[in-house]
Specification:
With 258 residues, this protein is an all-alpha fold. It has one domain. The protein has ten helices and no strands. Helix 2 runs antiparallel to helix 3 and helix 7 crosses helix 8. The protein is globular.
């Protein structure tokens, strides 16, 4: 955590991914939803349906990329030997990744909320504490994917970095971010029901349309998210032990590892 803090303090350009890209997303999608409202024959308000989905999915992406990004800082600087020559344990290292990602993701979320409220009138505060469990599910699943993709890079080598960035885009068609998963083919629906984020967006659409808080969606999504976090931590620890046993950490400057 301190290492990443020093990186942020010493390199102002590193603040750009935290604030600038999230601001661009909200402004771009905000004007798209405003345009759709102006031309739609029905008086459906696209702002909470689309802009709200963008905001929450962006939060999930920031969490996942935040965890993996801090890990990749150690890849780029070839810092693993320095870290693990110290008394640092794997749970402590993963906790540092998660806490650092939490801080940066919450900063980005605050920027998105301020812009969405000030420019486009989208206020999540009217839903109160109802949103907290949904955000928690997004956070936990983002953490699990961040840890899992970090383990993949640790196992396959620095050239596997390209596997990290497209993961949210790959799962988004199955997650029903902008549409209900009921319109998908059955095989895609099956995959979607294995993703905690699908329960988040299905549940929030019910709330926006005036329905009650879907307890079943929260239980299923939360249970899946917790299970994936535990599996990701187990997977990372297993890969790390393999890296130590085979000497991968000692030659981690290679582009690829067998």
């Amino acid at each position: 955590m301190l290492r990443y803090f020093y990186l942020l303090r010493g390199t102002p350009a590193r603040w750009m991914p935290i604030f600038v890209w999230v601001a661009i997303d909200i402004v771009l999608w905000g004007f798209i939803t405003r345009f759709l409202n102006s031309i739609a024959a029905s008086r459906l308000n696209f702002v909470p349906a689309l802009l709200g989905a963008v905001l929450l999915f962006d939060f999930f992406i920031r969490v996942m990329h935040g965890v993996a990004g801090v890990f990749l800082e150690d890849v780029w600087s070839r810092n693993f030997l320095n870290l693990f020559a110290s008394p640092l344990t794997i749970p402590q290292y993963l906790l540092g990744l998660v806490v650092t990602s939490t801080v940066t993701s919450l900063l980005g979320l605050m920027v998105m909320l301020v812009l969405a409220t000030a420019l486009f009138g989208l206020s999540f505060f009217v839903y109160g504490l109802t949103l907290v469990p949904f955000l928690l599910i997004l956070f936990l699943f983002g953490v699990s994917l961040g840890i899992c993709t970090s383990a993949m890079v640790l196992r396959l080598g620095p050239s596997a970095e390209w596997l990290v960035w497209p993961v949210p885009a790959v799962i988004s068609p199955f997650a029903g971010v902008f549409y209900p998963i009921s319109i998908l083919p059955h095989w895609m629906q099956f995959i979607g029901k294995l993703l905690p984020v699908s329960y988040v967006f299905e549940g929030l659409r019910k709330i926006i349309s005036g329905g009650a808080v879907p307890a079943t969606s929260l239980i299923l999504g939360g249970g899946l998210a917790v299970m994936y976090v535990l599996l990701a931590c187990w997977f990372f620890k297993r890969i790390f032990r393999h890296a130590v046993r085979t000497g991968i950490l000692a030659r981690y400057s290679a582009e690829s590892l067998s």
